[in-house]
Design brief:
About 15% of the residues are buried. The chain has a domain of about 70 residues: Zinc/RING finger domain, C3HC4 (zinc finger) (Herpes Virus-1), CATH 3.30.40.10. With about 100 residues, it is of the alpha+beta class. Strand 1 and strand 2 form a beta hairpin. The chain contains two helices and two strands, in the order E-E-H-H. The chain has a two-stranded antiparallel ribbon. This is Anaphase-promoting complex subunit 11. It comes from Aureobasidium melanogenum (Aureobasidium pullulans var. melanogenum). Belongs to the RING-box family. GO terms for molecular function: cullin family protein binding; ubiquitin protein ligase activity; zinc ion binding.
């Protein structure tokens, strides 16, 4: 028995893996919305999470970090901003050694 599909309409939805009430610490727009520079949600503007656990739209963070006054620090907690999960293992070990 063969079944021939004449047509179908696919529907898709996506969500960032973040709490629903979480929003960008710079522009204050929820992550399901758009950052001020984007036209559509998720339009080449992923969410960037720092090791300090603060999250931002990529465009918002890029604008912030490129300001001379930011000094490369998180706009929320003022720690040196490092993207979560990208630290070199030797860098992590060096920081742990210096803290001991």
């Amino acid at each position: 028995m063969k079944v021939k599909i004449l047509s179908y309409h696919a529907v898709a939805a996506w969500r960032w893996d973040m709490p629903e009430d979480d929003d960008c610490g710079i522009c204050r727009v929820q992550f399901d919305g758009t950052c001020p520079k984007c036209k559509f949600p998720g339009d080449d503007c992923p969410i960037i999470m720092g090791q300090c656990t603060h999250s931002f739209h990529m465009h918002c963070l890029d604008t912030w970090i490129n300001q001379e006054s930011s000094q490369g620090r998180c706009p929320m907690c003022r720690q040196v901003f490092r993207i979560k999960g990208t630290a070199d293992q030797s860098e992590v070990q060096a920081e742990q050694t210096s803290q001991s």
